[in-house]
């Protein structure tokens, strides 16, 4: 039996999850059976979960509460709070933990903030100091105290606002640690991938990669080749970024996420990579489909491979596990298991579904 933690939306985010849930996947007679086994830790809207690399500690983004919190394993199917919730930005929606387990990065959709927290030896979150939070706001939005904080002011919207239109807003959405220790974050509102480096106890902007206007970069996955794949929520595309010898990142290629994607109707969510690195999977909310893309060459490009029904409504998150794709359906309140072709990686039939309260993320337990 394989076990997973499940994050979801609670009543403060128009959902019915009562906290971090517990899911089991039982293998038998060549089929996987999913069972949602209840609440592992009561907490408000843990919409994203991240695992510590060495400790049995889980971090939750409490999206409706604008906070993050750590949880330690207290039993086979239970978690206990590891300290109180720590303030974050508005609608914090994603967390990433550094490979050395010493840093947590929170991306905040509501106000565009990217926040760095230290992590203690026990995995607990060290709250960001007030001056550190101010410095990060300055770095993101170019506020007047940026120079005093010792961090560069980041450019705002790289595209001029057309006459008669309201200015766009920054929406940080995800973070990935790069092989050299820097951090890449997406800004869905400004069509940017930002590259950060650690500076003291905070972050300093290194440079930015500007994507075409209106694409809406959302989530990312690091390919073993060193390329960074980015899925866009608005334009239904997958962009591949490559790093040059001087450490700068730039666009290498782009492709549609699905040949049947309808811009304005379909909105891609997660981007997941197969174990062998040959296949990417994205989910299209709207048509409720799973699109598989073949990774070409040494990872510098991808191309559509196959399309399948996700088995859920509004597939917000998915992951690959032992030849099966698990998909969290936010609106249907279900999680599905989809078979993957062993040879090509293409998604096939929905093997099984189980009910789960407004699921938004699935995380394997340690």
UniProtKB/TrEMBL annotation:
Record Gene3D superfamilies: YVTN repeat-like/Quinoprotein amine dehydrogenase
Region ranges (Disordered): 144-169, 347-366
Recorded family membership: Belongs to the cycloisomerase 2 family.
Name listed for the protein in its UniProt record: 3-carboxymuconate cyclase
